[in-house]
Amino acid sequence: MSRTIRIGAFVAAATAAVLAVSGCAPASDSETVTPDKLTIATGQPAYEPWVVGDKPESGAGFEAAVAFAVAEELGFDAKDVVWVRSSFDSAIAPGPKDWDLNIQQFSVTDERKQAVDFSSPYYTTTQAVVANAGTAAGEATDLAGLKDSLIGVAAGTTSYDVAKAEIDPTNEIQVFNSVDDVIAAMQSGQIDAFVTDLPGAFYAVGAQLDDGVIVGQLNSKDGGDEFAIVLPKGSKLTAKTTAAVDALRENGTLAELETKWLADQGAPVLK
Question: Of 61, 94, 127, 157, which is least surrounded by CB within 10 A?
Fold first, then answer.
């Protein structure tokens, strides 16, 4: 055997030995970005009531709790869940991701489905009533208490139809060009309260109004947006995540979490 052949055989054998010891393989068959871990992304920052205190790892908040429940259905212990942050836009853009699941109030649309995968929906938005604290509308505890209020809504939304059907106010519902215009109208006293989707209501009270309060949710999900978990396009976890969400819906877990983190946190259902 020539010296060149002997050296080549030695290198090949040594390489095989290193691969055997290190456990390296040409490609990973792991379904997750990190083997034996489930990496879940959320927004930076993440707002209440979706995540309490911007600490998703605590499991406190509706989406944080849903994420841990899904992880459990997928076979991951809480200690094996790794949280990371991503922007909303980058999460639904085409391309590789450094996370397995992303949860931050993503509405399912056909356009977004071209770039990413979605689970089945874990939440369908309701409409909610917002008013200023200390006013008659702000202190209403039922639909009858809103009957004589001047109600505003943004044009092009389902808020008008739901407000008309659920509240059926004595006064004509006022329609404005945008939610910002509706908020300005309430601040100036043109209207007593406004109806918008619940996520928008939480945002308005938390970031746009000094004395705003959520009076409550209207008992209708007609035309509501469906929120679903986002996964990388073609993820091996998509079908399993959908099955997990479906199981949580069927066994009542999603309804329980919605009550705990949404209805009981300042957004009761008005009757």
Answer: 94
